[in-house]
From TrEMBL:
It comes from Micromonospora globispora. Keywords: Transferase. This is GNAT family N-acetyltransferase. GO terms for cellular component: cytoplasm. It comes from the Bacteria. Signal peptide: none annotated. PROSITE patterns: GNAT (PS51186). It holds the Pfam family Acetyltransf_3. GO terms for molecular function: protein N-terminal-serine acetyltransferase activity; protein-N-terminal-alanine acetyltransferase activity. Residues 18-189 form the N-acetyltransferase domain.
Length: 217
């Protein structure tokens, strides 16, 4: 079976409300349709990568290609995990994390997006909390980092609630303008003392070598 060659297909990260996992082909198509309908209000610029500026059909294609690219380029030393987020059995967004030389650095970086219709209901915080549990409790991470534009209040508020601390700024150019991002860092110690929803992870053991980690068995 395909899962024997790619154990990540069986990985499940769950809270009482949502489930994170790799999407099947038809679910990936639903995610693409979701992105085509919009992931932020017109005129906003929440992401440094300007994929949301694309026409709807190209935006949808970007979601599909990025998913395939991440899996196709995966190595234990350089990986990017984009998990679809399911609520009531339907995909509502993507929670991603990635790392290089994770077995040595024990550090991950994350980003995410939600369909516009699913924002403002606490799903964004819960899916990030689920990802952090996978990183810290499941994979033994020591640090998790993220970044958001300084004017992008919602993800910055989520980061504060989950225990991240400021970690400097970056200045980049988007559409000919300087965009300032707040870097954020969460240590294992801060994660352990921060309130978070209950999370369960299943079928992780078989996936550990794909993250560059030894199995415990």
């Amino acid at each position: 079976m395909l899962i024997d060659h790619w154990p990540l297909l069986g990985l499940r990260v769950r809270t009482d409300r949502i489930e994170l996992r790799l999407p099947a082909d038809e679910e990936l198509a639903e995610l693409a349709d979701l992105a085509a309908r919009g992931v932020h209000e017109p005129g906003q610029r929440p992401f440094l990568m300007a994929w949301t500026d694309l026409p709807p059909a190209e935006r949808a294609r970007h979601v599909v290609q990025r998913h395939w690219r991440n899996l196709g380029a995966w190595t234990p030393q350089d990986w990017a995990l984009g998990l679809a987020v399911f609520e009531d059995g339907r995909p509502v967004g993507v929670q991603a994390m990635w790392a290089r030389d994770f077995a040595i650095t024990r550090e991950v970086t994350s980003a995410s997006w939600l369909g516009l219709a699913h924002q403002g209901r606490g799903v964004g915080r819960e899916m990030r909390a689920a990802m952090l549990y996978l990183a810290f409790a499941g994979l033994g991470a020591a640090h998790a980092t993220s970044a958001s534009f300084t004017h992008n209040a919602a993800p910055l508020a989520i980061s504060r609630k989950l225990g991240y601390r400021p970690d400097g700024i970056t200045r980049d150019v988007l559409h000919g303008q300087v965009m300032v991002s707040q870097r954020l860092r969460l240590t294992r110690e801060d994660w352990e003392r921060t309130e978070r929803p209950a999370v369960t992870v299943s079928r992780l053991e078989a996936c550990l070598p794909q993250f560059g980690l030894p199995t415990t068995g």
